[in-house]
Specification:
163 residues, alpha+beta, 7-stranded mixed β-sheet, globular
């Protein structure tokens, strides 16, 4: 909650279904319970990001199951606290997760959806796609958030074992 209160707009960008104010507390609690319930399964994987010195909570990253394409295995999402952004933390976490996922399965299609006005998110996707041979899909995909349809840019990364 402290991280949410520090930068609610960024938290809402990462978790667009999140309501503002005190309602966020219950939703974050529900998210943590849901993640705990799925910890032994393979449908989603989420990790807390902590600093190496002092074990400070820096954010979250995960492979979720809210997919746009039937062929996809996961969607990638992450959020890093304001004071820790632009330090390569998300990129290092994505690399670790993609390397881990590449060792687990023969192949895995990962989606990354970004709002077209999220310049930092689009730049991060471009860097991820450059490193992991992904691509941006032409046009927009409709994402239902609340009771609204919001267009997003869809990026795809195909992970193959041993590559």
């Amino acid at each position: 909650m402290e991280s949410y209160q520090e930068d609610p707009d960024a938290a809402k960008a990462a978790l667009p279904w999140l309501k503002e104010g005190e309602e966020a507390r219950g939703q974050i609690t529900d998210l943590m319970i849901d993640l705990e319930m799925h910890r032994n399964g393979d449908s989603i994987h989420f990790w807390a990001i902590h600093s190496l010195d002092g074990n400070t909570f820096l954010g979250m990253i995960g492979l979720g199951d809210e997919l746009q394409l039937a062929a996809s295995a996961y969607n990638l999402g992450y959020w890093v606290r304001r004071d820790w952004r632009r330090k390569g933390i998300a990129a290092a976490c994505v690399d670790a997760i993609f390397e881990w996922q590449s060792q687990r399965t023969e192949q895995s299609l990962i989606e990354i959806t970004v709002h077209p006005h999220n310049e930092a998110g689009l730049a991060a996707c471009k860097a991820i796609c450059a490193k992991w041979k992904g691509l941006a899909v032409e046009g927009y995909v409709p994402i239902e958030i609340g009771e609204r349809t919001i267009p997003h840019v869809l990026h795809l990364v195909q992970l193959n074992r041993g590559e």
